[in-house]
Amino acid sequence: MAVAAACSLQLTAARPSIIPARRVLGQAVGRVGSDPNAASWIKLSSACHTSSLQLFQCNFMSSSAKTERIVTKAMSEAGEKQSSSGLSLNLKGKRAFIAGVADDNGYGWAIAKSLAAAGAEILVGTWVPALNIFETSLRRGKFDESRVLPDGSLLEITKVYPLDAVYDNPEDVPEDVKANKRYAGSSNWTVKEVAESVKEDFGSIDVLVHSLANGPEVTKPLLETSRKGYLAAISASSYSYVSLLKHFLPIMKPGGSSISLTYIASEKIIPGYGGGMSSAKAALESDTRVLAFEAGRKHKVRVNTISAGPLRSRAAKAIGFIDMMIDYSLANAPLQKELSADEVGNTATFLASPLASAITGAVIYVDNGLNAMGVGVDSPIFKDLDIPKANA
Questions:
Q1: Residue 381: its pLDDT value, please?
Q2: 8-state DSSP, 131
Q3: Hey, is 161 helix, strand or coil?
Q4: Active-site residue, 238 included
Q5: Strand pairing of 50-51 and 44-45?
Q6: Out of 46, 52, 76, 238, which one is annotated catalytic?
Q7: What does the sequence similarity comment in the record state about its family (predicted)?
Q8: What's the rounded Cα separation, in Å, for the pair 191 and 313?
Q9: Residues 264/371, Cβ–Cβ less than 8 Å
Q10: How many angstroms separate the first and last alpha carbons of the chain?
């Protein structure tokens, strides 16, 4: 199975647009348009990748004599005076728990960096067998290069918790796992115990991220997958999210956000992505919708999932054909570029922010548009067609 910092996330309209709208009460008419003078682009980047979000600006003008102009921007500039006309995307004072961070090159790490850059305090849950290596690497500075935030400071992880999300409580843990030397020296690592520990240490959280999955038979075709392997994939990759949300919801503040990671294999055939993992991702997406309803009604917490494109992470390499999938995406996606983990991290930060306050139960695709394609345009069948290509 896999803080506060100065940053600016800005959303800028690509071109002017005017959208008329009528209010239910009163006769005021609003107009939404872009500010033609807006030209600032500030990037949220890591040591290896740079990504940006465009700045969306809206001018709302009433029909009354007094005109009020509100410019909406997503910004976070810790320690600096904010623009008087800006609506801040400032997560300072917010606390995030990210389950499934065990190294510095996966989506979980990128999400942690982006949230930290927006000002959030970061807590992580790391798979117990990987805990010692992860903490040692952090302590010895092996991750320092990839910890760099946009302002030059380093990502600070307030606390690392041992976690095995396959087990809900101590009673679920088999004796052979308890006796396993890889779990020696660690305690309170079931989902229930971790949630209780976080409550005892910090009281509450605002953001919950599920960034973990495991399919022991992922390289096997579905017809060759055992019942045990199939159910293990569902347990680790799908139900683990249900369990996490169930146990963390009582300590999540109203208006909070919960985010998971899925993959397009949930809805399209991806040969080689087997062992029940495609089924697990489909279940995760279905659960996201149901959880959005239940968590929204009971706790005013939003629940979304990000369908991320292929990434050369250590976990993905275990599948065995990740390079092939990246090449396929480069050849066939509308945006012909390699996906950056930071682009997924930035999307997660947006979903965790007040700017996404009305978004829940959604699958958000961050895959350079590959999900929109119906055919692979690199097929020889289309050799005589005038297929648009990236400029050299």
A1: 87
A2: H
A3: strand
A4: yes
A5: antiparallel
A6: 238
A7: Belongs to the short-chain dehydrogenases/reductases (SDR) family. FabI subfamily.
A8: 25
A9: yes
A10: 40
Catalytic residue among 73, 94, 113, 281: 281
DSSP bridge partners of 125: 99, 161
pTM of the model: 0.78
- Tell the residue number behind the tokens 């697990």, with chain if given: 280
Q: What is the pLDDT of residues 1-41, one digit of tens each?
A: 443 333 333 333 333 333 333 333 333 333 333 444 433 33
Phi, psi torsion values for 264, nearest 5 degrees: -65, -15
From the list 175, 191, 172, the residue with the least C-alpha distance to 128 is 191
169 close to 190: Cβ distance less than 8 angstroms: yes
CB 108 within 8 A of CB 100: yes
How many H helices and E strands in the chain? 10, 11
The b-or-e profile of 284-311 (16+ CB within 10 A means b, else e) is: bbebbeebbeebeeebebbbbbbbbbbb
Residue ranges, the chain, pLDDT below 50: 1-84
Structural domains in the chain plus CATH codes:
95-370 (3.40.50.720)
Taking alpha carbons only, the member of 155, 206, 166, 224 closest to residue 190 is 166
* Amino acid letter, 157: I
SS3 205: strand
Close Cβ partners of 139 (under 8 Å, ≥ 6 residues apart): none
> Which pLDDT score, from 0 to 100, does residue 86 have?
65
Q: What is the pLDDT of residue 43?
A: 37
Please report, as a single letter, which amino acid is at residue 193: E
329 counts as catalytic:
no
Q: Is there a contact between 1 and 165 (Cβ–Cβ < 8 Å)?
A: yes
Alpha-carbon dihedral of residues 373, 376, 378, 383, nearest 10 degrees? Answer: -100
Where on the phi/psi map is residue 144: left (φ > 0), alpha (ψ -120 to 50), or beta?
A: alpha
The pLDDT assigned to 9 comes to: 38
Among left, alpha and beta (phi > 0; psi -120 to 50; other), residue 79 is left
User: Residue 95: enclosing H or E segment and its boundaries?
Assistant: strand 95-99
